[in-house]
Amino acid sequence: MPLAPSHFLLSCFLMSLLAYTIKQSASRFSARTITKPLISRAMHIQSIPMWEGTGNNYAYLVTDDKSKESVIIDPANPPEVLPVLKEQTESGAIKLSKIINTHHHHDHAGGNSEILKHYKLPIIGGKDCTQVTTTPSHKSQFTIGESIKVTALHTPCHTQDSICFYFEDGSERAVFTGDTLFIGGCGRFFEGNATEMNKALNEVLASLPDDTKVYPGHEYTKGNVKFAKKVLDNEAIRKLDEFSQANKETQGKFTIGDEKQHNVFMRVNDPDIQSLTGGKDAVEVMKALREMKDRS
């Protein structure tokens, strides 16, 4: 039986509406399936442990992921560092451009001469570093590849030529602290004093964004926690203790914000620590803490 004209028009309208709806849904689905997510690039940091069981040092290979330009930080023991560099440069994974030294001590800058036999590179570091090419001024900047910005932060005390290097790549931040700041501790005052270390830790480094990851020159965390527990009992120190007992390496796992909580050398204004040390100001507390740590 044929449809009435009104029913026929209604049927045509509904079929057209259905077809339009299907087309629009297909278009939206297609757009969703072919749209690629934004890729967030960030610097790549590779730790190279050296002298495990004795010095427990770290060298760091830092690469701009986009350009593949890389720098090697404190490559002090060439027999452990060169195989890593050769494998990655020969495969084309990186383009090595610089050596960076945090200070002149042999277990940080002592590998420069041997590395230079294999890679003719400029050396950026403190004025007393072996074969140094450039000593950047405090807060001066240079770039690695297309996106990494590096700021040199002078932190004299452990040595007078100590420099920490602050790396930024988009929202990623890292600081390579040599023997100035360790996870849960700080370096000995070989060439400086408590005033200088207090400024280095609690003014220069403490001013960095709290989410800045810390990459020190040595894996000393277990020993630092052992001392910290004698000085202060707080949740942050207990958590650091738990992590260090469960993990062999702690570099890059904690931030400047974390250090302000669990590093007693960055808590010199804590009333409990002042009471323990008898110090009346930050410098006196810093001096007393270092003397206690040296005796421990």
TrEMBL record:
E.C. code: 3.1.2.6
CDD domains: hydroxyacylglutathione_hydrolase_MBL-fold
Main EC class the enzyme belongs to: hydrolase
Domain (Metallo-beta-lactamase) ranges: 56-218
Pathway: Secondary metabolite metabolism; methylglyoxal degradation; (R)-lactate from methylglyoxal: step 2/2
Single GO MF annotation: metal ion binding
UniProt entry keywords in alphabetical sequence: Hydrolase, Metal-binding, Signal, Zinc
Similarity annotation: Belongs to the metallo-beta-lactamase superfamily. Glyoxalase II family.
Protein name: hydroxyacylglutathione hydrolase
Organism: Pseudopithomyces chartarum
